[in-house]
Amino acid sequence: MTETAPVAPTAPVAVVTGASTGIGEATARRLRGEGWTVYAVARREDRLAALAEETGVIAAACDITVEAEVTALRDRVLAEQGRVDALLNISGGARGTDRVGDAKDEDWAWMYEVNVLGTMRLTRAFLPALRENGEGTVLNLTSLAAQRAYEGGGGYNAAKFAEHAMTEALRLEEVEHNLRVIEIAPGLVHTPEFSLNRLGGDAEAADRVYAGVEKPLTSDDVARVCVFAVTLPHHVDLDLVTIKPVAQAAPHKVIRR
Ligand SMILES: NC(=O)c1ccc[n+]([C@@H]2O[C@H](COP(=O)([O-])OP(=O)(O)OC[C@H]3O[C@@H](n4cnc5c(N)ncnc54)[C@H](OP(=O)(O)O)[C@@H]3O)[C@@H](O)[C@H]2O)c1
């Protein structure tokens, strides 16, 4: 090798939250398939370990509502890789379908903790390294629920609208650091746990969410869009992508056969 020969390129490094199931897992899997070094983040270590074994992602158990765990994750990634190229904030979710008049404090607090504060904590922790990178990316997985409210959606709408607002503020604040900020906002996605968790483990009620919809989005449909957005040349920013199944013309209009 001559002195001027280029250093062998190292794989870009991503931190993907929500990687134990659904959209996050599918995204971690696909990004790894593109040759990235992927830290797969969620609380359930057993699921992350299985994904690591199967795909070669790095399992990194972390509760994003606990500051010390987020700091430890950041320190680990930087100690092992010395850099981070992309942070994909996919952890999140909904609890309950109560109308505002019946809202349960604990459900609303949970939705804020995970969707809003969790996303903020990860972003804050990794921001210095993303700035230093010079071509960093943050992708936040919000929702159609971040754009249109619906009856029984108040708590989730409020949390996802907040996550959307934070995403816009971040884009404005960090453009001087060349940070690319992407928001992906899916409609109806048939993932294994989202509706089950929202509806307190009631499997029949969860099935009714997707009943008669021939082709709701799958985790992998959304993962493809996330990975496409993150692997585009860095100066191209898909700053807000709304992705719905064709059968869902609007949040309130879903064709069921
Ligand atoms: N499914 C839909 O229709 C839909 C539509 C639009 C947007 N979304 C959004 O898409 C994202 C993924 O949802 P999904 O449907 O794929 O599945 P999901 O079952 O809701 O998955 C949620 C993920 O978040 C992780 N998580 C929850 N609390 C956490 C915590 N305290 N710390 C770290 N990770 C935590 C979970 O992992 P652990 O339990 O292992 O921690 C899991 O991997 C969410 O932000 C959701 O709001 C979903």
From TrEMBL:
Keywords: Oxidoreductase. InterPro entries: NAD(P)-bd_dom_sf, SDR_fam. The keyword Oxidoreductase applies. It holds the Pfam family adh_short. Belongs to the short-chain dehydrogenases/reductases (SDR) family. This is Oxidoreductase.
